[in-house]
Amino acid sequence: MKEERSLSLLQLMVNEGLVPSPEEEENRKTFIEKLKQIVVAWVKRVAWQRRLPKQDIAVSSATLLTYGSYGLGVHGSESDIDALCVGPYFATMVDDFFIVLYNMLKSRPEVSEIYCVKDVKVPLMRFVFDGILIDLPFVQLKILVVPENLDILNPVFLRDIDETGWKSLSRVLANTQICRLVPDLKKFQSMLRCVKFWAKRRGVYGNDLLKFDFDWHNVLEPFPYTKKYAWFLKIFLSASKQDELGDWVGWIKSRFCCLLFKLEEVQGLCDPNPTEYIDVNIADPHVIFYWGLQAGKTNAIDIKSVKDVFWRNISTGYQGPFGKIELSIVKASQVPKSAQFDTLSQKRKKACWKMMDYHQRRIPIYSQHVPQYIVGYVSTNGDPEYPSAGV
Length: 391
Fold this sequence. Notes:
CATH class of the largest domain: Alpha Beta
Radius of gyration: 29 Å
Shape: elongated
CATH superfamily of the largest domain: Beta Polymerase, domain 2
Helix content: 25-40%
Largest sheet: 5 strands, mixed
Oligomer: single chain
Strand order of the largest sheet: 1-2-5-4-3
Order of helices and strands: HHHEHEHEEEHHHHEHHEEHEEEE
């Protein structure tokens, strides 16, 4: 089912024009290569005008680095292209980029609507090339030869760059780091395409708010579960020891999909609030979840059948010591005040046994039985810390 949902989402993005066709993608690559050739020819001309030695003119070079949506691989059919022109030490922004390269581009039949934007934090040229809008800032590196496949994160290339150059480079550096650090680039790209599409449809995309009394707390305000839902599924998990609870909770959370499917099969809508809570009146290490339930059908829930199905699912494959699990239906009024999440004035609590110094370097401890699950940390002095029952 997950695979089918993922494929249907990808198909939706294609249908909405969020993913360029193979032909469009190839055309953009060809376009970038053509623009690179112009930039290389520009550098050769500037080197000749500067009367550099013939051998230096022969090896001198420049390149283009794409960033923004195209650099991240999340551009659409009609997206513009952000590219950074990276030049050698002898090519200046004022005389060579904004005059020589500008004139070369202006004389090309593929280029139209070209103009310079100089009095801004990141000076650039803006033009249309083969029907595609281009934003082209410039940075000067203190080298003669700029490799075509330049590794912009290599500190060798980042010496003695002025403030304007750093501002031009910052977006490229950010894009490069993102692409290197995300564990699955294709999944990240799909997610980002969806978020951008949602933001554009909602009128949010590209709109930094001008309201003077704007408060970020309003954006980050907890979802008012107890106001929206009158009934909740209470999931109570406990263990006899603190270091056993992390494994137990991790195992149960890895099987939550099964519980959710069964609930929605017999009850309809279920809103799984992921926040973990504790009851200060209970001594044993524990975690409590409250999932919102659709109104009007709670009386019809056969909670025993749900328990039986879920227990069979979690009983298979777990290698650690079993903890306790209790499922029950409660009213919103029965949700304890310590787990209220209606307003910012009421702090949401998470299962916690020890306050940590977050400035201290810590090494994660992974579960023996659920290898991808972090159950705690070891500080650099060797003391174990168990910050919560879950990640």
